[in-house]
Amino acid sequence: MSELINAREERGADISRGGPYYGELIEQVRGLMDRARLVSPTDELALDAIGILKQLNDKLDAAVVNEWSTPTWTRFDLPARGNITLPPFMIDHADSSGVDARLTFRNYHLGGNNAAHGGQVAVGFDDLLGMAAAMHAGSITRTASLTVDYRSVTPLNTELKVRAWAERQEGRKVFVRATLHDGDRLCAEAHGLFIVLKPGQA
Ligand SMILES: CCCCCCCCCCCCCC(=O)SCCNC(=O)CCNC(=O)[C@H](O)C(C)(C)COP(=O)(O)OP(=O)(O)OC[C@H]1O[C@@H](n2cnc3c(N)ncnc32)[C@H](O)[C@@H]1OP(=O)(O)O
How far is CA 25 from CA 18, 49, 60, 103, 116, in A? Predict the structure, then answer.
């Protein structure tokens, strides 16, 4: 984890960005998304919530910045860097040999039958494989190819283990693999190809 933060700090990343309350703000937004996924409101409640959310969105508008200034790519101290589009995970270990993380799919990741949506599983793999590829190559990479095999149902609201690692690198091509476990049970596994970006590559 500290190696990961160091690697980002060397590139100018700042884990204080967004301030001391940013993590709790994001957690409240995740809680809102959990409720929004399952709520069946009365008209009165819907109108009340719309009014509050409109007010809140107007307030937040005043603090919206561009993607390079947002905390969501620098806050390695927060679950999933505080990025609400990712299933929340905490990194236990990250270096050139691989990444170990604890990840929890929440109610807003529901696919059906109390299980995570397959696309959400792929989102989690993409990010953690990207991290493993970047740590291995010592440079930012981009997903060229990602294959997910779903081996058994992935539960919600359960701490799962992800292991992601680079198998080999050929020039700019980093070949990666990952597994997702609930205890001893394999829920899904993935393999992918990530490409090291050339200097200045958009
Ligand atoms: C250290 C700090 C830690 C940081 C942690 C950060 C965590 C954040 C993690 C966030 C993670 C989120 C990440 C995201 O979500 S990234 C977003 C999703 N991905 C994209 O949008 C990518 C779109 N595609 C492209 O931009 C280009 O195609 C890329 C850049 C991928 C390659 O275009 P480029 O012009 O640069 O290179 P090239 O075309 O000469 O190809 C190079 C080589 O690769 C081979 N090839 C290419 N594609 C494929 C393929 N599909 N299957 C098999 N092989 C393929 C190709 O044949 C060639 O091989 P060779 O002829 O050399 O042998």
Answer: 10, 18, 11, 19, 24
